[in-house]
Amino acid sequence: MMKSTTTQPTPTPKSNPGPESSNSLNQTPTSHQTRSRAAKISHDRQFNVVLYGIAECAQGTNRKTRDISKVEEVIGALNCGVNNHSIRDCVRLGKYRTPNTSTDLKKPRPLLVNLSRVTDAQQILTKKGAVPKPYIIKPDLSKEKRLIEATLLKERWTLIQTGTDRSSIKIRDSKLFVSNTLYGSASGSAFTPSVSRLPNPNPESEGSPPSSP
Asked: Are 91 and 38 in contact (CB under 8 A)?
């Protein structure tokens, strides 16, 4: 008697049901709708990337359509295999402020970009170093992880300002390395230096016997 064989189904990439219908892409959202969409999109961060540097349109205009178009342009320049159909939604993070100074114009709110598949986000992040200036692409991190990242970047900038070669400084998770040696780690806004680089409280005593009382 011949044994029957069972064919196992081929796993498919995890897909994103999407937070909004396609009709919403052509509407200008209210502040409440924007916050609601951002909360839905951030529910599963592995589908998301955050794009910095795209200038904002004036309030009251159809910003959503223009933002989507610019996101498609920036991601398309990466040649990472992610097409326009993979971009499900995007929303500005933070409250809109009318730009009053040149500084405000240079610091537009970042865009949270929601993608169809986890692999789409991974492919974009793999190519983030090739993004054209002035744009920056980062993963969608939780508030806690963003604070840790900000703390490490602040310490990194201090090192660069004091003459450390920037190419020797690496950030891995919550730790900062210099020339592949642990320099310190961050927990929230606090940075803790590694034991190997903590200053000696009494350097004059090194290599000499204790003085007599």
From this structure: yes
Q: Which residues pair with 111 in a beta bridge?
A: 51, 92
pTM summary value: 0.60
pLDDT of 23-42, one tens digit each? 444 444 555 555 555 556 55
Cα–Cα dist 142/132, whole Å: 25
What gap in Å lies between CA 55 and CA 49, rounded to an integer? Answer: 17
Work out the angle at residue 42's Cα, subtended by the Cα atoms of residues 69 and 11, and round it to the nearest 5 degrees: 90
Rounded Cα gap, residues 118 and 139, in angstroms? 12
Enter the DSSP assignment of 179. T
Cα gap 29→31, rounded to integer Å: 7
Contacts of 8 (CB under 8 A, 6+ apart): none
Q: Residue-wise over 134-150: b if at least 16 C-beta within 10 A, else e?
A: ebebebbeeeeeebbbe
DSSP 141-204: --HHHHHHHHHHHHHHHHHHHTT--GGGEEEETTEEEETTEEEEEEETTEEEE-GGGSPPS-GG
pLDDT tens by residue, 37-59: 555 655 678 899 999 999 887 66
DSSP state for residue 198 in the 8-state scheme: S
Distances in whole angstroms, Cα of residue 60 to Cα of each of 25, 64, 128: 15, 11, 31
Whether the ω angle into residue 132 lies within 30 degrees of 0, i.e. cis, is no
Amino acid found at 91: V
Q: What is the DSSP letter of 41?
A: H
Q: What's the rounded mean pLDDT across residues 127-132?
A: 88
